[in-house]
Target: Deferrochelatase
Amino acid sequence: MSSEPARSGRLSRRRLFGLGAAGAAVAGAGAVAAGPLLREPPVAHASSTSDPYPFYGEHQAGIVTPAQDRLHFVAFDVTTRDRAELVDLLQEWTAAAARLTQGKESGSFGAVGGDPAAAPDDTGEALGLPASGLTLTIGFGPSLFDDRFGLAAERPAALADLPKFPGEQLIPEISGGDICVQACAHDPQVAVHAIRNLARIGFGRVSVRWSQLGFGRTSSTSRAQATPRNLMGFKDGTNNLKLEDAALLRQQLWADAADGPAWMAGGAYLVTRKIRMTIETWDRTSLTEQEQIFGRDKGEGAPLGKKHEFDALDFAARRPDGQPYIAARSHVRLAHPSSHGEARLLRRGYNFVDGSDGLGRLDAGLFFIAYQRDPRKQFVPIQMELARHDPLNEYVKHVSSGLFACPPGVRDAGDYWGRALFE
Model:
């Protein structure tokens, strides 16, 4: 695959089974069923929620892929200081991901097919389950570009550390990370199984820093999807970038070779924020105030003063009393592209409920996920404006933050996640 492992003079047992899985199970025994599917360009839609999405392509799946219903997101710290071991791991992960996203087990011998005296190659909890639209998307955090692996000169300028935003209360233990993997699927067991097996493969080279489960997507990434609702009861992501917006995606989402560095061309930058909502306080707020805060009605999702969800926002429209329908500091106005040089984000966040505290209050909210071409020009100015002026701040608290450079897609079975970065 890459010349890097050859220079190291080593071939790990896990890499042997991983590359064997890609060569034998994907391109060999399963070639009739899986091989052609893996090599097709990414498709806009799977025919059902049980079907797989292609793994190989120009861009990573799980970005413009129609947002699935379930999420398991994980951030890893790299514990090895050996560059060759890290490259081996990325190759092994890629081979496993190619199998998992097609509904197969993570290793060539699977959960029950190997030596019964040895630990199985797969944990087995997804046996009998279909692919369920699983996508696996990897990203590299700013901390990976320190002095451990000789990557400092390859750190993209767009991967600049996020500033401190007013009011945020970040918890370091659930923020950051060297590497992230986003698993999205229509079945939560499939998503959890994928992350569990990647963590298992990575044992001794990475450790889990933090993870997050999510349900009920809070954005649509395709016009074929209905707009979902967040836990405040409002439709979320009405004007989100969609996979059908080809020109806007080239402009706002995909990194270009001219942006630098070359290894990120065709990739995108990911920002995550865990936003806890004070659900109980929000639930005691009047409907009128809730709608004024958002700038949309709660039922249809229409901009205030309009009738339909997708009616154009009109910030100049006024009520009979002369006041604007949409307040100057409403959420939709503060976040609107016209307030930020037409900057847009591709959002694919999820609701979360992590139990409750000792007083019975839900630990719940939004796990915000946004992809973009350059966070300095997109997420940062948008979030700074919201942090300073959004009336929603009375009801939310940002407790976790992540920033990652997601490389372009894996082209074929000879490629691996982040290959251009390490060559």
